[in-house]
Amino acid sequence: MISYLDPPLQGEGDHAQHGGGGSPPLRRPEVVTARALRKKMSLPEVMLWERLRGGRAGAKARRQHPIGPYVVDFCFGSSRLIVEIDGEAHNRANRPARDILRDQFLNENGYRVARFAAADVLRDADAVAASIASIVAGPLHQPAAGPPPRAGEDQE
Fold first, then answer.
1. Which of 18, 37, 130, 139 has its CA 20 to 30 A from that of 46?
2. pLDDT attached to residue 94
3. Range 42-136: architecture per CATH
4. Phi, psi at residue 32, to the nearest 5°?
5. Across residues 48-68, what is the average pLDDT?
6. Taking the domains of the chain in order of start, what are their residue ranges?
7. Cβ contacts of residue 96 below 8 Å, gap of 6+?
8. The pLDDT of residue 151
């Protein structure tokens, strides 16, 4: 006799509760890349993350965050700030041109980009974190100053 307290037999029961069947959820390639990059961050990124995590810079930071087709080192969503740590590889081959295109994309989508050399982070990570905190604290625009002048008005 089968009791209602007995566990379901193999192949029976509520698959939704027990994770049975189905295909794995599809993820954007940037999300897969971001997750992999979080596991193998560079030393300067780790040093800076320890100083930025948990809102220590005055706003919540995300590390290795996908934005469009790119994965940025750090993102402060509330202040629309992207922080990139540039190692030696950023000066080689076509990397400077790629960084310019990436920054243009991010700027066009409402983000400010702040770049710091990895050597500066290694030398004084606290100073770089303080610099980032001051950028986060500064507003994108100054509402008290009013709207920007229209084309031609600033020439009078």
1. 139
2. 77
3. 3-Layer(aba) Sandwich (3.40)
4. -60, -45
5. 91
6. 42-136
7. 90
8. 64
Question: Using CA atoms, how far apart are residues 101 and 104, in angstroms rounded to an integer?
Answer: 5
The tens digit of pLDDT for each residue in 7-56 reads 666 666 555 555 555 666 777 888 888 888 888 889 999 999 999 998 88
Torsion sign across C-alpha atoms 54, 56, 58, 64: negative
Residue 147 CA to its chain's centroid (Å)? 30
CB 34 within 8 A of CB 66: yes
Q: How far apart are CA 146 and CA 156, in angstroms?
A: 18
- Taking Cα atoms as reference points, which of 62, 77, 68 lies closest to residue 30? 68
Q: Where are the alpha helices (DSSP H) in 21-94?
A: 29-39, 43-52
Q: pTM for the whole thing? A: 0.70
pLDDT at 131: 93
* Residue positions counted in the chain: 156
Helices (H), the chain: 15-18, 29-39, 43-52, 95-108, 118-123, 125-137
Is 55 strand, coil or helix?
helix
